[in-house]
């Protein structure tokens, strides 16, 4: 048995010294890690029986272990996330069809997308509190059931005077989006090892992007009719199919989804378990919103993702403005952006797990996102074939940025709960998304795609400048290195 004791950095309590005790057992290759809170009245760090008592913080089994079931948990979450994200764009990607069927204007159709953002900003704090208070399983159960219920409600909306029913169902699904977007970094931190966490976060975000991809692709493929009767018939396949899929997923989550593994997957996860025991939720939020680097990251992240939301929502109108008569290809272009973007997400996560170069990676992704949007703007002006190519470039970097922002926030704000920092980033994204979607919808309808895209490019440039000046210590990485596994 090899033992090591480390004094950890102080985080919130100046009267407490944190001592990490790690031991390596060569017989079974197990690593034990215990965090001891040493107060001024303590004459020495813990030893012997004192250590055994502290180990009970981990249920008497502090050994760090990776479980194979972590992959199943992640896949199940990805499917649940995809089922929610699919419904975000299932109406706005066929704006003209929905406007014709319900006899409403384009902005009303885009409200089916905007409602996701309207409910997220005020709902972020209670959703983050629920995650911290009740854990992953309860949060995912609530979100999965609500996503199914919202999809079920929309099955009763297939009549020209039932748009309000569509909005009721869409609002229910949007509320459940609160229990999706902030979870990937939390699932990664709770279930995955220190060398997997960025990749796991990227895969978690991939699930959401997979749903967006199908939201871009399937509705235009299925709903091709031009009459109200034909549109109603074809929408039946979309809404009933969605309800069936989300219902099956809710049952799967109810039966199989687990809150956390019996033993922590990494030293940093073991430390976080102890460090977060006494964390007050509102105090944690106060710490996050007063951290200058976190504030700058929050704004730059919100701008980047807000621009992505705006492009996704008004893509149908952009294509109609640039290439009249070719609106049907909007779904294909959106799918390309998302599919290639999921590859970008996983590649970026893999690079971070190998290099831990967060700042450089984020700045590179942001810069190429900006260049990609300029290329997208020019392509819409000149050539439809070029739009497909540039869309792939834009998607790889802009969508690839999504999970990296979560991981960077978790690093620079450790040991604050990952769900809190992710919730703040997502609230910023929804805030900017609301503003940019409203402006983009009005601009593209009145002035065309070029002024709209120039406005989005200018906004993204502001975010790029902020990203260039964001600095932050990799606190989670430092904690891991201080108590790293040894042989």
TrEMBL record:
One of its GO terms (molecular function) is heme transmembrane transporter activity. The lineage of its organism: Eukaryota, Metazoa, Ecdysozoa, Arthropoda, Chelicerata. Residues 73-475 form the Major facilitator superfamily (MFS) profile domain. GO terms for biological process: heme export. Signal peptide: none annotated. It is a multi-pass membrane protein. This is Major facilitator superfamily (MFS) profile domain-containing protein. SUPFAM superfamilies: MFS general substrate transporter. Keywords: Membrane, Transmembrane, Transmembrane helix. It is found in: Membrane.
């Amino acid at each position: 048995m090899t033992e090591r004791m480390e004094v950890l950095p102080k985080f919130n309590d100046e009267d407490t010294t944190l001592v990490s005790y790690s031991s390596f057992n060569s017989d079974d290759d197990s690593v034990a890690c215990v965090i001891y809170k040493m107060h001024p009245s303590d004459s020495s760090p813990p030893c012997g029986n004192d250590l055994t008592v502290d180990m009970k913080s981990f249920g008497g089994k502090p050994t760090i272990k990776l479980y194979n079931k972590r992959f199943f948990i992640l896949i199940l979450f990805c499917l649940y996330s995809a089922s929610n994200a699919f419904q975000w764009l299932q109406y706005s990607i066929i704006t003209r069809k929905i406007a014709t069927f319900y006899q409403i204007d384009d902005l009303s159709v885009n409200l089916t997308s905007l409602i996701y953002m309207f409910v997220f900003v005020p709902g972020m704090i209670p959703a983050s509190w629920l995650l911290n208070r009740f854990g992953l399983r309860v949060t995912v159960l609530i979100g999965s059931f609500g996503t199914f219920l919202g999809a079920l409600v929309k099955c009763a909306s297939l009549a020209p005077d039932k748009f309000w029913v569509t909005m009721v169902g869409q609002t229910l699904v949007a509320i459940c989006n609160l229990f999706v977007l902030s979870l990937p970094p939390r699932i990664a931190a709770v279930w995955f090892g220190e060398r997997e966490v960025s990749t796991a976060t990227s895969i978690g975000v991939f699930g959401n992007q997979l749903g967006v991809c199908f939201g871009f692709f399937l509705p235009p493929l299925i709903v091709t009719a031009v009459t109200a009767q034909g549109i109603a018939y074809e929408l039946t396949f979309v809404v009933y199919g969605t309800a069936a899929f989300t219902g099956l997923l809710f049952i799967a989550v109810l039966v199989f989804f687990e809150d956390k593994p019996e033993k922590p997957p990494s030293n940093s996860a073991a430390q976080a378990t102890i460090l977060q025991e006494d964390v007050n939720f509102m105090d944690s939020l106060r710490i996050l919103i007063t951290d200058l680097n976190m504030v700058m990251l929050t704004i730059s992240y919100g701008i980047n993702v807000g621009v992505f939301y705006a492009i996704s929502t008004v893509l149908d109108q952009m294509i109609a403005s640039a290439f009249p008569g070719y609106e049907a290809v909007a779904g294909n272009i959106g799918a390309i952006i998302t599919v290639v973007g999921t590859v970008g997400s996983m590649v970026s996560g893999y690079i971070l797990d190998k290099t831990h170069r967060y700042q450089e990676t984020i700045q590179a992704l942001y810069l190429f996102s900006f260049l990609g949007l300029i290329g997208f703007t020019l392509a819409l002006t000149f050539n439809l074939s070029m739009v497909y190519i540039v869309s792939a470039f834009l998607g790889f970097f802009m969508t690839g940025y999504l999970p990296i922002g979560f991981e960077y926030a978790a690093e620079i704000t450790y040991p604050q709960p990952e769900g809190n920092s992710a919730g703040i980033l997502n609230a910023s994204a929804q805030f900017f998304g609301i503003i940019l979607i409203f402006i983009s919808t009005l601009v593209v309808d009145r002035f065309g795609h070029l002024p709209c895209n120039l406005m989005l490019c200018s906004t993204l440039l502001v975010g790029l400048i902020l990203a260039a000046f964001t600095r932050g210590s990799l606190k989670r990485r430092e904690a891991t290195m201080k108590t790293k596994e040894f042989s």
